[in-house]
Every structure is written in C-alpha cells, then in structure tokens.
Amino acid sequence: QVQLLESGGGLVQAGGSLRLSCVASGSIVRINAMGWFRQAPGKQRELVATITSGGSTTNYAVSVKGRFTINRDNAKNTVYLQMNSLKPEDTAVYYCAAQKRATSSYDYWGQGTQVTVSS
Hints:
With 119 residues, this protein is mainly beta. It has strands at 2-7, 10-13, 18-26, 31-39, 46-51, 58-60, 68-73, 78-83, 92-100, 106-109, 113-118. Strands 2, 4, 5, 6, 9, 10 and 11 form a 7-stranded mixed β-sheet that branches. β4 and β5 form a beta hairpin. The chain is globular, with a radius of gyration of 13 Å.
C-alpha cells in the first residue's frame, strides 16, 4: 500500500502564497506520476497539476497556469505545490494523489488539506 500525507494548507489573503507538501510512504515503487487535485464546496474534484515520475513533464489546469508550480523530490518521496498570487476562487480542499503503475490511474489519495483565500 501507499500512504500520502499532505501539509501546508492554511488561511492566506488574496495575492499571497502557500506551499503544499505531500510525503509518500509505503510501497513507493508502485507509484508513477503524482498530482494535486482540489475540491471546493458544492463542486466536483478537479485536477490542479500533475508531474511525471522523473519530474520532466508537468501539466496544469488553465485556471492555475502561471501561478502554481508542481515539483517533486524523489529522494524525499515528496511532491510540492507552490501556489502564488492566490485568489479567493482557489479556496478548496487540496488532495495529493499518486498514479498506480499497474493501472495508470490515480488510485492513491491523501486526506486533503484546506486552503482558504480571503478577499
């Protein structure tokens, strides 16, 4: 099994920054790409950013492109999400997810961390 533990959420004013971290433990060899997703109240969970296993390729939602940066440190089994120029519409629970090599699906999920951006 794989466990994902997020940290770094909190309350920030619009225009501010936060960095989320996600540490993976357990059967790390089962993991391929990793990503961040978010879910705002009353809305469906949406993809924020993903990164391949080696870190060479990233993908971002249009709404965060140019403001958020995803990267990973495989030596520490950690993926980060640097969020700059935050907007109230970025308020959501942010989830770390890992893609299972066997299925190519995001089968592993963290518990989520709350990010609240005040106007």
